[in-house]
Design brief:
The chain is mostly beta strands. It is built from no helices and 11 strands. It has strands spanning about 1-5, 10, 20-25, 35-40, 45-50, 55-60, 65-70, 75-80, 90-100, 100-105, 110-115. Strands 2, 4, 5, 6, 9, 10 and 11 form a 7-stranded mixed sheet that branches. It has a 4-stranded antiparallel sheet with strand order 1-3-8-7, with no helix packed on it. A hairpin with a 4-residue loop joins strand 7 (about 65-70) and strand 8 (about 75-80). It is globular.
């Protein structure tokens, strides 16, 4: 069983920063491909950032240059550093991985960008 637990969300003003964390536990190493997704009200869930087993990175165009995904295998954690946040970044952010053919999601953490 794999568990993903997100933390670090909150309310921030436009232009501010937040760092999301995803704790990984169970029969998996955080060295697997990990991703952050987000879902805003009335919108489909979209992939925001991904870090592969080889530490290759990928981002949705709307966050390039502002968000950075990283991992710390010693802490079994994946992070999403979000800078220069905008109201359109408001969403529930989810941690995701695929292990042995099963897709795993965390419960999500709310990020609200508002003045």
């Amino acid at each position: 069983q794999v568990q993903l637990v997100e933390s670090g969300g909150g309310l921030v003003q436009p232009g501010g920063s937040l760092r999301l964390s995803c704790g990984v536990s169970g029969n998996i190493f955080s060295s697997y491909t990990m991703a952050w997704y987000r879902q805003a009200p009335g919108h489909q869930r979209e992939m925001v950032a991904l870090i592969s087993r080889g530490d290759n990175l990928a981002y949705v165009d709307s966050v390039k240059g502002r968000f950075t995904i990283s991992r710390d295998n010693t802490k079994s954690a994946v992070y999403l550093q979000m800078n220069d946040l905008a109201p359109e970044d408001t969403a529930v952010y989810y941690c995701n991985t695929v292990f042995s053919g099963t897709i795993y999601w965390g419960r999500g953490t709310q990020v609200t960008v508002s003045s």
